[in-house]
Amino acid sequence: MKGHIRERSPGHWAIVVDTRDASGKRKRKWHSFTGNKRGAQIEAARLITEAKRGTALDPEKVTVREFLDRWLEHMSTQVSPRTIEIYRENVQFLILPALGNALLSKLKPDQIAKAYSEALQSGRKRGGGLSPRSVGMMHRTLSQALKQAVTWNLLTTNPAASCKPPRIERKEMKVHDVGTTAKLIEYAKGGRLYMPIVLFALCGLRRAEVAAIRWSRLSLDTASLSVSTSIEQTERGTREKPPKSGRGRTVALPSLVVEELRRHRLQQAEDLLRLGIRQTDETHVCLREDGSPWPPRLLTHSFVRLIKSSGLPRIRLHDLRHSHATHLLATGVHPKVVQERLGHASIQLTLDTYSHVMPSMQDDAAATIDAAMRKAMKR
After folding, report:
1. Which of 87, 178, 308, 358 is in the most buried spot, having the most CB atoms within 10 Å?
2. Can you say whether residue 107 is alpha, beta or left, with left for phi > 0 and alpha for psi between -120 and 50 degrees?
3. What are the pLDDT digits (tens) for 113-133?
4. What is the distance between the alpha carbons of residues 186 and 306, in angstroms, rounded to a whole number?
5. Residues 69 and 21 in one domain
6. What phi and psi, each to the nearest 5 degrees, are found at residue 191?
7. pTM
């Protein structure tokens, strides 16, 4: 059994696999592939291996369930462990109950749209269940999987591409004002969450970024932090990886944060010494009582307990990051600076996320230009 690739046009390849049926008659199967030559070679090797094992999917017989099992196996080598966990959860709990037994080749846009509608309706009847956001996740995962089915020549078109997920109503963002944030920081003082909360509220870092900070990433003399890794938590444990945006950034530290970090480093060294652990530049800045780094999810659970006991307005841990951005924008910091500080991929994301701050900024801008023009015109 063999095969070869042939370039049809730049970036478009034909993969030809020679097989034999039960009677020994030679058969030739053609597959399309879009990408570079190396990718085409890898795909050809995969198709030949499947043909040898007899595990190739039959487009006319394979069910959505069988295809998604194969797709998940393929994606496990393409994405991070946490991402594949999310895909598996979406497939198991969202897609399979609605479409798992359908034949892949017979899947139509109206069938998918009906599955979305029924998922929403059943959720309403139970007083819970699938929210528009969950159905949106169902759509994104299914659409991506069926796109791969087209690449594998199991489908000619992606039926999910013609379907629209339900509209998700944006919830009003909950943030703490400067005064409430200060009260929260004071309340947390002396506890293990104090330093993480300071970094969330005054630097706008993500949960996974705070958990990953090591002393080697800090320059207290220049008041800067290099954010180049984050902690990803999966069912199998934690691992370090590049931050969400895919690239590192440098965050300037307020003098208050520098002061607290200097004090915290001395206290941490004493605490670790009592545990028989020597502090080094590679020690994590934020540690638990036993000297181990914080898993991101445990940071969230601990914050929930702290905010409940504080008596302050309840917000999520991630909302401290939103609060930080809101404080900056409300005091006139340019959105581009806020984008870079938060590590957003684009300034448009920053503007869309914090549009609630823009009206007051418009008022300030109008007042500023009015004052300048009146002074120039002496009116």
Report:
1. 87
2. beta
3. 999 988 888 644 444 557 888
4. 12
5. no
6. -105, 175
7. 0.73
